[in-house]
Amino acid sequence: MAKGKKQFAVIGLGRFGSSVAQYLAKMGYEVLAVDESQERVQDMANVVTHAVSADSTDEEALKALGIRNLDVVVVAIGQDIQASILTTLILKDLGVPKIIVKAQNELHGKVLSKIGADKVVFPERDMGLRVAHHLISPNIIEHIELSPDYSIVELQVPSNMAGKTLRELDFRVRFGCNVMAIKHGGEKMDVTPRADKPLQRADVLVIVGNNGQLLQLEQAYA
Ligand code: ADP
């Protein structure tokens, strides 16, 4: 293992946790995988550096695993919200530098942020949003989440938008969205797009906005 490379632990080896652990291991990182289920630990044994069966709500067990010495710990406990919160609290007390936790819902996420989780992720919600964007508009090329409420999307100019100018389209007033840049095929990118230049079918708009309003814009031109 290359010295200086980040070391990770993943607690909870359900679909999400095992996928995180697997990809980190594949990229050559040292990963400690923890689950209270022997069976799940067994499944990961040949994939990650160390796979250990332990209850992460047991502080002594986590101490014994030396988890405080790792750089990042991912808490991927799904259904059991209490176990997820307790585990996060213990990791925080142990002084783990970076704790990333999967949340089941908004309230769970709020609690996790309050007790000091460095990053809270909502995989199901985020994937659902992505799929919705693609379903509403097949012209969406990319979707980047900036915060729970705001995103950047890349939209291939649809035929019912081609030939119109940004002034005519008036996205700021109609959808509260802003066109940050326009890609003209390949690598060429105009980061100060002009309001009076007709858009072309080959252009790709880079738009920032509120998720709900972005979806409305996509729907209007789908
Ligand atoms: P997903 O939705 O990602 O599949 P699951 O809820 O199926 O998530 O999986 C969560 C995993 O976390 C399970 O394998 C479960 O055994 C594990 N887990 C739950 N509570 C604890 C705990 N206190 N300590 C260790 N592992 C736990």
From TrEMBL:
Residues of the RCK N-terminal domain: 5-121
Span of domain RCK C-terminal: 139-222
GO molecular function list: monoatomic cation transmembrane transporter activity
One GO BP: potassium ion transport
PROSITE patterns: RCK_C (PS51202), RCK_N (PS51201)
Domain of life: Bacteria
Pfam families assigned to the protein according to its UniProt record, in alphabetical order: TrkA_C, TrkA_N
Signal peptide annotation: none
InterPro entries: NAD(P)-bd_dom_sf, RCK_C, RCK_C_sf, RCK_N, Trk_Ktr_HKT_K-transport
Protein name: TrkA family potassium uptake protein
